[in-house]
Design brief:
By secondary structure, the protein is an alpha/beta fold. The chain is built from 4 helices and 4 strands.
């Protein structure tokens, strides 16, 4: 069985800890790595790593969320994006959809 590659770009420490714990406790074969650098290097990393899933902290996005998602999709069109945020703001949630 092949491993699912997940790239984490989560700035909020509590949110990151919860995501890492959930990935470690999962029953599936999931490999993950964290990315702590800036947005430009994240986009470059997507090209190299080609993860199946990007866990993206909405608070770490330096631009409008819709633009950020388009940038990710240009670099890694097959990568699924899971947008996370430590605050349940309806405007942010709608923007991610």
């Amino acid at each position: 069985m092949s491993s699912v590659k997940v790239l984490l770009s989560i700035k909020d420490e509590s949110l990151c800890r919860k995501a890492v714990d959930a990935l470690r406790e999962s029953a599936g074969n999931i490999s993950f790595e964290q990315h702590d650098a800036d947005w430009t290097s994240l986009l470059e990393r997507l090209v190299k790593v080609r993860p199946e899933v990007l866990l993206l902290d909405v608070g770490a996005v330096p631009t409008d969320l819709a633009i950020a998602i388009r940038q990710v999709k240009l670099q890694a069109p097959r990568t699924k994006i899971v947008a996370l945020h430590s605050v349940d703001d309806p405007k942010i949630i709608l923007a991610a959809m």
